[in-house]
Amino acid sequence: MKTTAKLALFVLLATAVNFLNAQGVSKYSNEFLSIGVGARALGMGTSVISSTNDISATYWNPASLISLDKQIEIGAMHSEYFAGISKYDYVGAGYKIDDNSAVGLSMVRFGVDDIPNTLNLIDANGNINYDNITSFSIADYAFMASYSRKLPVEGLSVGGNVKIIYRNVGEFAHAVGFGLDFAAKYDYKAWRFGAVLRDGIGTFNAWNYNRALLEEVFTETGNEIPVNGVEVTVPRLMLGAGYLFTIKEKFTIYPEIDLAMTFDGKRSTLIRSKALSIDPTFGLELGYGDLVFLRCGFNNFQTVPDYDGKKTFSWQPNLGIGVKFYGVRIDYAFTDVGNQSIALYSHVFSLSYCFNIKKKESHSRL
Hints:
The protein is 11% helix and 52% strand. It has 4 helices and 18 strands. The protein has helices spanning 3-22, 39-43, 57-60, 211-220, and strands at residues 72-81, 86-96, 101-117, 134-150, 156-169, 173-188, 191-198, 203-209, 229-233, 236-243, 245-247, 251-262, 271-272, 277-288, 292-305, 311-325, 328-335, 346-355. The protein starts with a helix and ends in an 11-residue tail after the last strand.
């Protein structure tokens, strides 16, 4: 990249961050999109920015969509957190238009269902009536349209996402948002490099609250009544680099290191300052014949204060395995959405299938 291009990218990012900070940024807005999708990625500690080559590229690095094995690939993932209380799902489909371009559509949902609504437990006469208890769901949705294209430079591709966000809290509140992601991927011999600017211009969620349902209860309990407004997610820069070692033709070893950089002040990450926080991750994948894969990853590096004031170093290990045959990919990961000492570990499965469209033979009459 030329110096002028680097300077232009820096100015664009700095301008966007300054503008968004002026809008009243919510530091942890849309955090459900920070969990990750695909058992391969979660088993590698989310260190896949430069190596994703399946349908999960719509989430991790849309510039990698052009690397799909076949013309069409569809995939899905399901996982449960906090002893099954919350459900996290991903579905996606990708299509290679030609050798130089590809598109994809995907959806992410994170939700908690069947939450009891006890607002009407006590009726107008002061009696408790359990028949008045209903249920509702709190769910976050992200719908992504992705595009990837090869550039004239060998090994270089770019891409991006258009994101529509929908967040719903039963009949009490909902939000609609819009955002853009920008991505690039570069392969040089055995090296793999990737870069993704998530929420590149900021993702804006417009919240609307049902004050008619909330006002009476919030007033009686002394809580502040929420006001309609806009929640802003600031840009996050993801960088990744890895190297593919080939041993005796069929055996491969692929280590990758990723860095997630946020610009909304100090966070609980390994490297942090008032302006910038950096969250490093590391992943390792052992492969045999492009058929079977063993994976491990390490992330969530943190310095945690103890009760006595001392600080301890905390990190999260992850394990995974994958099988790939006849266009089918089955991946499993044993991982955790948060710190291993607090939340329970989860079993994550993902499945995808890729295939080519058979062209119909044309029959001409003589």
